[in-house]
Every structure is written in structure tokens, then in C-alpha cells.
Amino acid sequence: MDIMKPISRRRFVKNSIAGSVAAMAALRGPADQGLADSSKASSGRLRFGANYVPRKRWWYCWQDWDQQSVVEDLSGVADLGMDHVRIQCLWPMFQPGISSISDSALENLGKLLDAADHAGLDVEVTVLNGWMSGLRFQPPWAAPLKRPSRGHDGNMFVDRQVIDAEKLLFRRLARTVGSHRRFLGFDIGNELSVLQTMSNPATPEQADAWATEILAECDAMAPGKFHVNGVDDTNWFADFGFSRENLANTGHATVVHCYVFFTGALKRYKYSGVGSLHLADYMVELAYAYQNDLRRRVWVEEIGVSPEWMPEAYLPEFMEHTVRNVAETGKSWGVTWWSSHDIDPAIKGFDSLEYTLGLLDLHNKPKPLGRKFASLAKELRQSPPEIAPRPVALVIPDHGLSTKPWPADWTYATPYMDLLAQGKKPVIVLESRAKDEPSLKAPRHVPP
Length: 448
Fold this sequence. Notes:
Layout: E1 7-8, H1 9-17, E2 47-51, H2 67-79, E3 84-90, H3 91-94, H4 103-119, E4 122-129, E5 131-132, E6 135-136, H5 160-177, E7 183-190, H6 193-198, H7 204-221, E8 228-230, H8 234-237, H9 244-247, E9 254-258, H10 265-269, H11 274-277, H12 279-289, E10 298-303, H13 315-327, E11 332-338, H14 368-382, E12 392-396, H15 413-421, E13 426-430
Parallel strand pairs: 2-3, 2-11, 3-4, 4-7, 7-8, 9-10, 10-11, 12-13
Antiparallel strand pairs: 1-12, 5-6
Helix pairs in contact: 2-4, 4-5, 5-7, 12-13, 13-14
């Protein structure tokens, strides 16, 4: 069968038994690796949360802490019915020197988790940032400069001295919040593929080895927690940096960041087109296809929308379509919106679109988008949707996308969207698993 040619599930199974093609990644039986031991992480219900952006001083607040403001912010997030937040540790502020960790930043992190506990929110702590909201925050001591006299070049993915320093930061963080009842786990870094494109080149083999090593360290330092690698869309739309196999089989969930603008969906399909409304569920299905463990879930860790991309009145409708499409896959751990709050325009330096992505405004009041997300969370918790049947299999090569990080390569995504436009919901199958006959006997869907 031609690669990327859709076939019916009935024919799909028949042909597989005959020894020719096709087994669904979604049908693979459980492997040894499971979800984190934490009952919070392995809950079978879709979770809803927000990427926390402080109203006061943005994340520069680590150096100028205002506990009352943070308490108010997190209470506002909880009032929307969210159950978790993802937060960002700006790397230079937490580790200003290769062997120096800021005690005050650690203390403020503990205070943030206490505020989250008061609000009833779990917290995913994102560590090596690194990169966020269009700005780079790599500390000077880790800058990729050739330093023969010091015996290292500063590359965060391959320089052993830098990697050892990174582990030091994780150890101090784990010692500070690892046993906190609201600590969900570590996200090892925010969209680190961007740093690979800018200043820290790494082959897929080097990137995978680094991620495997750091995530193993996280498991050793904070066992039973929900540790992940929070990559952007680059790795799912290009054969670049971290491999999709590594992302789908290390840590405790596979992460996708789904933005219609940055992936090029908006340009291809417009804001209400199939490729925009189904971008997130496509990325969930694609990520799931690379997983070896049926129990593992895909975390839609970042998804957001700007009024610069579509009419502001349409934003809640866009959100509703997107969230429902993700929920109907039955494969997602949760949806974590970007972001909790708008950014104060007095804080200069961001691209204009970054300032208005919040669920809550600068007065901590829900925007229409926030109210919609709250209503969806309440509804889908009380009445989880039926898992959408996927009678068509779309077989794709394991590799074969562009090796350049941008622009996004839609070679795999376009036929998926074409099938949806025809009223057919496909499951994605890797070519390497096309003769995996034992998986045909596995159940269609197994709860975590």
C-alpha cells in the first residue's frame, strides 16, 4: 500500500491479518513504561489548566516578589474551575552562575506553591527557560561561546559542565518543592528546540540523549511525579532536534504546543477552516502514533489564540471547537491554555500579540475566552464526550519531513485534514508498525 494512502479500518485489519500492511499505533498493547505513580497525574478524566502569567511584573517577579498579587492571580485561575497551572522559572534568575543557585528564587517558588495550595491548584514547574514568549533567557555562563581555556563551549545539550550544572538546579528545586503536595512535576524546559535553532546546535541523537538523561534525573530526584519535555511544534512538523520517538516515549506524557499561527495552519486554512479547528487533535493523534505505551497520554500543554489572528468575537467559538475535538480523541491528559492573564502593556519588549492572550484581564476578571473555557471544563468533567470513532487509517512514514525547523512541513498533516474535510476521522499509523499483527488484538481504547 502506498504510504499516506488512507484505507478503511475494516480493510486495514483484513490486510494486516493477510500479512501486507497496517497496525494502528493506538492499538498497541501496554508496554512496561506507564504514567507517573501520582494519582493526580494518572487520573482518567481530562484535566483543565492554564499557563500562569503573573499580572504584576510578569515572570520578572521572581526578583521582586509580591505574594498577595500571586495569591489573587491563582485564586482567579481557580475560580474558573481550573485544576492546575504550569509555571516558568527564568533560568538566569534561578541559576545566575554555573554553581550558584538563588536562595531567594527558591524561597519564592515555595511561596508560589503555597499560594497554589490555597487555591487548590497543582503546579507543573518548567525549569530551563531558556526561551519564552519570543525572548531568550539563557544565562551568560551557559552561552554557547568557544572557551578553550575553560575546556567547554557552553552548549546546554552537549557540554558536560553545563549539563552537570543543569542537574544541580534540578536537585535544588527538588529539595525545595519535590515533596510539596501541589508539586505535579518538572517540565524540563520551555520549547527548547528554539534554543537548538538559535545557539545550541544538537543532532537528534545528542538532543535525545540529553532529554533521556535529564528526565531520568528528574525521576530519581522526584520519583512518582509528572515529568515532561515541553517542546514546541517544531519537532512534530520537522525531523529536527528531539526525535518524535524520544518525545513519545520518555517522561510521563507526550507534550504538544498547538498554535494555528506558528504552525502555518492559519495561513493555509484561515481561522475557521478544518486545519485550524483540528490542529490540536491532529497533533494529539500524531504524537500518540509514536508512543509504545497505550496507557500514556498526550498533554496539550500550550494552546492559545490572539485577536490579531481572527475576529475577537470568534475566539470563544474557536476555543470550543478545538477543546471538544481534543476531548473526543480520548488520548489527551489535559488542556492547559496559554495564558492565565494578559500581560501589562507597561512591561515592554514583547511582540504585540503576547499581551492579550489571557483568560483573565489585568484586573483579574474573566474575559469571554475565560468564561468559555470555564464552562467547557465544567461540562466535560461532568459529562465526558464519547470517543469519536476513527474508521480510516492514515499510514505515514516514521521520518521524511523537512530537516529545517521552519517553516512547518505539512506533508503529514495535509492528508489528515483532507480526510476530515470529507467527513472521515482518521487514526494515524506509522509505516514501521504497519505489519504489527499482534497489536490488532489489543483493545481500541484502554483508560490510564
